[in-house]
Design brief:
The chain is built from 2 helices and 25 strands. The protein is mainly beta and about 375 residues long. The protein has 3 domains: about 180 residues, Pnp Oxidase, Chain A; about 60 residues, no CATH class; about 70 residues, no CATH class. The strands form 7 sheets. Strands 1, 2, 3, 6, 9, 10, 11, 12, 13 and 14 form a 10-stranded antiparallel beta sheet that branches. It is globular.
C-alpha cells in the first residue's frame, strides 16, 4: 500500500508542559535560577495559526464585468497561543512575562513544608516595572498530550509532543479575587526559532525513574524554524513540577560573520568575553574581517583578531588604543581599537583602573603575549 503508515492516534489530555527561557540568540539559556520549568498544573493550552491574506487583483471592463481576477494564496504569519494555569505560580509567571519572584529563606515563617537549608522558596510575585519589557528574548513552550488508539493509550509512542520554539507572552484578562479560583491566563504570539534546536539539555539528577539524556528532546531540530510543530513521542515529563537547570549544549565552533554563527545552532553561547577566551579559538585561525562579530550570552559582542578574542566588532580601519580596561581578558578603548603590538607599545595606553589590577587580570597584545598594570607600569603576563 502506497503512502504513509500511521495508527491515527487521537490527542487527548494535556499531561505536561515545559517552558524554557531563551537567550539573545534564541537558544535555551543556561545559568539562571530557573532555566526551564516543567509542570502539569495547567488547565488548558491553545494555539491558533494566523495567516496573512493574499492580495486580490481584480480588473473590470467598461461594462463593469470582471475581466481579470487573481488571488495570491494566504501565507502563514505567526501563531497565537493561550495558556491558563491552575494557580498563580510566581516562578512560572516570572519566566513567561518577567518581573521578580519574591522569595523566603529556610526557617522563616513563609518557608513551605519540606524545604531544606540552602533552598530558596518562591512565595510571591512582583510585576515588571512600567515600560520595561519583562522577557525580552521570549520563551519556548512544549506541551505533551496523551496519544490514544481504540480508547486506550497508544501501545507505541504514547504521547504527542507539541513545540512552539519562540513565544512572547503577556498576562491576559481580569484577575479577580472572589469566591472562586483566581484565573491566571497568558496570551502570546509565536514564530520559528532555529536556535532552539532539539531543546534544553536538562540536569535530571534525582528524577525517578531516571530519564535518558534525550528523553524529552524534540526529534526534528531542523524544523524548529517553524512557528509550531508536533510529533509522536515515546516519553514525556509526566508528574514533574519545578525548575530545572540547563546543562547547555557544547559549543564546537564559531564561524565568522556579521553576526557570526555558532555550531551547533542551539549551542550554549559563552556568557561573556572571559568565558569565550576560556573556550579557545573554536576553529578560528585567521583574523576576522571588518564588521564581523559574535554575540555572547550577556548580549555583548566580540571578534577574533588572529590570536585572541577581543571586545566589540572588528574595526574597518585601524583604531589606536588609548585605554585598557582590566578583565580576564580586559579590553581596549575606544571600541574596536587594535591590540598594541607589544609590551612597549602600551606606553601610551592609560590603564583602567589606574590602581593595581587584581589577580588573574590581563590584556592581550598583538604578538600573542599578555600584560597587566601594576599600579605604576605595564608588566608582562597575567597579574599575580
Amino acid at each position: 500500500m502506497a503512502g504513509y503508515t500511521q495508527d491515527n492516534a487521537a490527542s487527548v489530555r494535556g499531561v505536561a508542559l515545559r517552558a524554557t527561557r531563551l537567550g539573545v540568540d534564541g537558544a535555551p539559556m543556561a545559568g539562571t535560577l530557573c532555566d526551564s520549568y516543567i509542570t502539569g498544573g495547567f488547565i488548558n493550552f491553545s494555539f491558533t495559526p494566523v495567516s496573512s491574506t493574499g492580495d486580490e487583483i481584480e480588473v473590470k471592463n467598461a461594462a463593469g464585468e470582471v475581466c481579470v481576477y487573481f488571488k495570491m494564496p494566504d501565507t502563514m504569519k505567526n501563531v497565537t497561543v493561550k495558556l491558563e494555569i491552575c494557580d498563580p505560580d510566581p516562578v512560572l509567571t516570572e519566566l513567561l512575562v518577567g518581573g521578580e519572584v519574591l522569595t523566603a529563606a529556610f526557617g522563616t515563617p513563609l518557608a513551605p513544608p519540606g524545604m531544606t537549608a540552602g533552598q530558596v522558596a518562591g512565595v510571591g510575585y512582583a510585576a515588571e516595572q512600567i515600560g520595561v519589557q519583562g522577557s525580552p528574548y521570549g520563551v519556548a513552550i512544549e506541551v505533551w498530550a496523551q496519544a490514544v488508539v481504540g480508547g486506550k493509550a497508544a501501545p507505541v509512542a504514547p504521547f504527542w509532543h507539541y513545540i512552539f520554539p519562540y513565544v512572547q507572552f503577556a498576562l491576559d484578562g481580569d484577575r479577580v479575587v472572589e469566591n472562586g479560583a483566581l484565573a491566571t491566563v497568558f496570551t502570546g504570539t509565536g514564530s520559528g526559532n532555529a536556535a532552539f534546536g532539539a531543546g534544553p539539555n536538562l540536569d535530571t539528577s534525582g528524577v525517578t525513574p531516571s530519564p535518558s539524556p534525550t528523553a524529552w528532546d524534540w526529534l526534528w531540530p531542523q524544523y524548529s524554524d517553524r512557528a509550531y510543530a508536533y510529533s509522536r513521542s515515546v516519553d514525556a515529563p509526566v508528574g514533574l513540577r519545578g525548575c530545572f537547570t540547563n546543562l547547555g549544549v557544547p559549543l564546537t565552533a564559531i564561524v565568522a560573520g556579521a553576526p557570526a554563527t555558532v555550531t551547533p545552532t542551539n549551542a550554549t553561547r559563552p556568557a561573556n568575553l572571559t568565558a569565550l577566551t576560556n573556550a579557545g579559538a573554536l576553529g578560528n585561525t585567521t583574523a576576522w574581517t571588518s564588521g564581523q562579530y559574535v554575540v555572547l550570552g550577556d548580549g555583548s559582542e566580540a571578534y577574533w583578531d588572529g590570536n585572541s578574542w577581543e571586545f566589540g566588532r572588528k574595526a574597518a580601519t585601524v583604531i589606536t588604543a588609548t585605554t585598557a580596561t582590566a578583565g580576564s581578558p580586559g579590553y581596549y578603548g575606544p571600541t574596536g581599537a587594535a591590540n598594541p603590538a607589544n609590551l612597549a607599545a602600551l606606553a601610551s595606553v592609560t590603564a583602567i583602573p589606574t590602581t593595581a589590577w587584581t589577580t588573574g587580570q590581563f590584556i592581550n597584545l598583538a604578538d600573542a603575549s599578555r600584560a597587566n598594570w601594576t599600579g605604576s607600569v605595564w608588566a608582562a603576563g597575567v597579574h599575580a
